[in-house]
């Protein structure tokens, strides 16, 4: 586990440098349409995603959209999102007033790193948040072992270890006793679509901190959407698969 966490630290640092190149850029709306005649199903769905992505993510012009597209491979234009919707997520952090697209920039089996359009990064292991960088008050590492197994088994208890930084940039470690329990089926708004998913609540208690995560799973047991704790300042990060 230590080697995996160290690898996460390495590629998260590199991801943050890459993602910062996109900081301050805005996506452009572009133009796309159809006359509604003989449009293949895949094309029709892509055009629908383009329109919905525009309404969510906004923009200021085609020149800016081209520039943003070059900042991070794949870009954040509605057309790029429509072409590869599985590569993107919609990220929301209420405490920071943030809602924006994020793109997968690193993938190693179930482990992925997302780069938000504004620069910060977040790493997940099978959909379980394990680290963030670029928010200031970041989650250095959070063990994910046992969480997916408990979710797929219908619930359970796990012990998780969290590392954070204090005001002197010293790493603080705390252990949490976490209980994962099913909460039934729920209709979930994923940003550009709605899906009925199985909800699980995770309650974690440490020596000085209690937090509650939420996971929404599809029929295959994959995490489609989640709300997971980051830090006292950032609070919770919501991530939706498009």
Automatic annotation (TrEMBL):
Taxonomic path: Bacteria, Pseudomonadati, Pseudomonadota, Alphaproteobacteria, Rhodobacterales
Residues annotated as signal peptide: 1-21
Entry keyword annotation includes rRNA-binding: no
Keyword annotations of the record: Signal
Domain of life: Bacteria
Pfam family, one: YjbF
Signal keyword on record: yes
Protein name as it appears in the record: YjbF family lipoprotein
């Amino acid at each position: 586990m230590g080697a995996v966490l160290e690898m996460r630290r390495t590629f998260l640092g590199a991801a943050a440098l890459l993602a910062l190149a996109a900081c301050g850029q805005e996506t452009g709306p572009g133009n796309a349409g159809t006359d509604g005649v003989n449009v293949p199903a895949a094309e029709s769905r892509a055009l629908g995603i383009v329109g919905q992505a525009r309404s969510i993510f906004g923009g200021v012009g085609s020149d800016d959209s081209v520039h943003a597209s070059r900042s991070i491979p794949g870009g954040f234009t509605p057309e790029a999102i429509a072409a590869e919707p599985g590569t993107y997520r919609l990220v929301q952090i209420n405490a920071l007033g943030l809602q924006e697209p994020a793109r997968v920039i690193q993938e190693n089996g179930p482990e992925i790193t997302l780069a938000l359009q504004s620069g910060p990064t977040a790493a997940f292991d099978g959909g379980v948040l394990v680290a963030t960088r670029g928010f200031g008050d970041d989650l250095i590492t959070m063990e994910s072992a046992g969480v997916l197994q408990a979710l797929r088994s219908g619930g359970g208890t796990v012990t998780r270890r969290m590392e954070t930084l204090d005001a002197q940039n010293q790493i603080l470690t705390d252990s949490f006793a976490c209980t994962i329990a099913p909460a039934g089926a729920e209709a979930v708004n994923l940003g550009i679509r709605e899906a009925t998913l199985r909800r699980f609540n995770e309650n974690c208690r440490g020596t000085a901190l209690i937090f509650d995560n939420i996971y929404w799973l599809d029929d295959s047991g994959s995490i489609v959407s989640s709300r997971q704790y980051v830090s006292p300042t950032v609070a919770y990060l919501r991530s939706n698969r498009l």
